[in-house]
Amino acid sequence: MIQNAGIATGGKAIYGAPLGILMLEARFPRIPGDMGNAGTWPFPVLYHVVKGASPERVVLQGAAGLLPSFLEAAAELVSFGAEAITTNCGFLSLFQRELAAHVQVPVATSSLIQVPWVQAVLPPGKRVGVITVSAGSLTPRHLEAAGVPLDTPVVGTEHGQEFFRVLILGEKQDMDVGLAARDILDAGRTLMRRHPDVGAIVLECTNMPPYAASLQKALGVPVFDVYSLVTWLQAGVRPRDFGVGAHF
Q1: Over 90: is that where the pLDDT of 167 sits?
Q2: Residue 103: which domain range?
């Protein structure tokens, strides 16, 4: 920060990247739009890979035993200069309260946090639906931790051909993007067919933003994801400067 007489103040290891992202340990492709692709973001971010936090362990095994590792990694990001923390798996809503208490900066563990916000803007008779990588693994504990009503409609991709198999089971390091897109679109169509009162969708999985635009066009309802969450968080951490503050 530049102060009077051109004096710069220190105290951080890294500057210009106030948002830190806790990453799972995985090797699948991070295409543009994926949270783990740094080119996705219109601002710099700090990454920290949490060792041992595989997608299978976090999603299918409830992140059992991983809380200390995430607390340590979040604290390290803050020590580097992060002023807010997020994660690259919506299932880490389980750690929302603990992480925020530990690092004492804003924490947004899951795109599911947006569900109550989106519900507030929908017309009467409409509600939010969720598309997740694994509906069978998204428990009431995950929903409650993110403030999501337990009766929220949820559809997963676990019965698809590609998306779940590559991201969660880790069967291969390459991915057929077309098949992955089809899995997510199929999940969206299933959600709308089962629940015609759905007026907006929140994507739980942080690997789904590359497909959000196509999903919105196909289904005709607003789609929110971790990209909308993180850009909102960044907007609070670094509000746009309209020049007025220079006069105060």
Answers
A1: no
A2: 14-110+230-237
| Residues 139, 90 share a domain | no
DSSP 246: G
75-90 per-position pLDDT tens digit: 999 999 999 999 999 9
Q: Are 226 and 111 in contact (CB under 8 A)?
A: yes
The answer to whether position 3 is within a domain reads no
The encoded tokens of residue 80 equal: 């580097």
Q: Which residue has the tokens 């798996």?
A: 89
How many domains are contained in the chain? 2
Q: Based on the domain organization, do 70 and 117 belong to the same domain?
A: no
DSSP state for residue 45 in the 8-state scheme: -
Cα atoms in the 13 Å half-sphere on the side-chain side of 40: 24
Compute the residue count for the chain: 248
Q: Reduce the secondary structure of 51-86 to three states and give it as a string.
A: CCCCHHHHHHCCCCCCHHHHHHHHHHHHHHCCCEEE
Average pLDDT for the chain: 93
In whole angstroms, what is the distance from residue 73 CA to residue 71 CA? Answer: 6
135 and 217 in a single domain? The answer is: yes
Distance between CA 114 and CA 233 in Å, rounded? 11
- What's the rounded Cα separation, in Å, for the pair 34 and 30? 6
Q: What is the pLDDT of residues 10-23, one digit of tens each?
A: 777 788 889 999 99
DSSP 9: P
